[in-house]
Amino acid sequence: MESTRRRAQHSANGKGSEAVGKSAQWGRAWEVDWFSLISVVGLLCFAPFIVFYFVMACDQYQCSISQPLLELYQGKATLLSIWARAPSFTWSAAKIYAIWVGFQVFLYMCIPDVAHKFIPGYVGGVQDGARTPAGLINKYEINGLQCWIITHALWFANANYLHWFSPTIIFDNWIPLMWCTNILGYAVSTFAFLKAYLFPTNAEDCKFTGNVFYNYMMGIEFNPRIGTWFDFKLFFNGRPGIVAWTLINLSYMAKQQELYGHVTNSMILVNLLQGIYVLDFFWNEAWYLKTIDICHDHFGWYLGWGDCVWLPYLYTLQGLYLVYHPVQLSDTHAVAVLLLGLIGYYIFRSTNHQKDLFRRTEGACSIWGRKPTYIECSYLSADGHTHRSKLLTSGFWGVARHFNYTGDLMGSLAYCAACGFSHILPYFYIVYMTILLVHRCIRDEHRCSSKYGKDWKRYTDAVPHRLIPGVF
């Protein structure tokens, strides 16, 4: 594995920094309580059916999420009749998906990034990740933006010149493709689970709870890899799901044009706002190496299946809904949605930029025209060495400890509001993101408390609000 193990620096008197407290418990839990176990088993059992239910509701009930339940209650439909009406697995869809995933693997593994040499300000190529609990710093080939550009250039070339396939190919095979994504999601999750027992990439970064369900869902290995560069977390978090996100929306747009002869302003807004989010992800892929997904989460079903199935199917519900309900917004409504989305993105990006700037300069910078304030803290890695860190308390990070999530939620609400107010289905995303990010706040703060100890208490005293000042 391409990685380095960096040791703690010695102090002026030649001795290492004194250890403070016990080694921090990074990543997911070592022990599982009954509530966590019930939640894990529930998600493993019902999450695939949730995805199927929403997609089926659009396919069979014009995106009504209450009508299927009502018909089941009244005896007008049965689970078997609903299942029988759903398109099944097809080898055509399997071929499409195999080509798609194979192409993304090829771009990820075989084409080193050159975009950073030509695009000012973009950070790509080989980059260091964050320190793992075992003290390792892995190296990554950051080429997501390049993969996204190549993929979409080929998409537009096909749509306008090559005509190898219809631009509506994704929508036309949406449910058969869902079975293919489930196969890959379960396959990669099961492989990662078995790999952790049989040939882990780094045994020191593995966590075994003794509970097979929790281990399978939340993962055992921290950074499973095949060979030197194929990192499961980076690949499945970014590709094939997020690269596909904008292609899925473009396929929805093409289908709306095919069905109705025009594209609505709501569909344009969804494509624009979600496209900004996706491009931001790949532009800042090197920064993403320092986020909770890479720094704390182990790789299991939660990430493997979630990135293959949950993300592409439920994060794109707004575009799917607009194929069945082509909403044309008033100018006032459209402008309000656009402003909400852009302001939310500004907060999200500015907050993350402030932290990144502070981290890169080690505090030697200006935030909101002033020298930043911070809490200095220390922590232990599993190799017994002490490391030092700084927790920013200026700018947006002085307003709330997770103000970037506040901006993210504003953007999420804008995607939903672009669909009007006639149906509940498009608003699943804001409900889900609220639950996800609030839970992530709690998880992140529990880990930081374990990692930093009394220094974390000093930080929370300095910045008392988590998400929304005065509210939460």
Provide a quick synopsis of the model.
The chain has helices at residues 34-61, 67-74, 79-85, 91-110, 144-162, 169-172, 174-198, 212-218, 232-238, 241-260, 265-283, 285-288, 292-295, 301-314, 317-324, 331-361, 396-399, 403-417, 428-452, 454-462; strands at residues 3-5, 125-131, 136-142, 225-226, 230-231, 374-380, 386-392. With 472 residues, it is mainly alpha-helical.
Q: What's the alpha carbon Rg, rounded to whole Å?
A: 23 Å
Helix content range of the residues, please? Answer: 55-70%
SS content category: mainly alpha
Q: Report low-confidence residues grouped into runs of 5 or more.
A: 1-26
How far apart are the first and last residues' alpha carbons, in Å? 42 Å
Mean pLDDT score: 87
Please write the string of helix (H) and strand (E) elements. Answer: EHHHHEEHHHHEEHHHHHHHHEEHHHH
Count of helices? 20
Describe the structure.
The chain has helices spanning 34-61, 67-74, 79-85, 91-110, 144-162, 169-172, 174-198, 212-218, 232-238, 241-260, 265-283, 285-288, 292-295, 301-314, 317-324, 331-361, 396-399, 403-417, 428-452, 454-462, and strands at 3-5, 125-131, 136-142, 225-226, 230-231, 374-380, 386-392. It is mainly alpha-helical. Helix 10 runs parallel beside helix 14. The radius of gyration is 23 Å and the shape is globular. The relative contact order is 0.12.
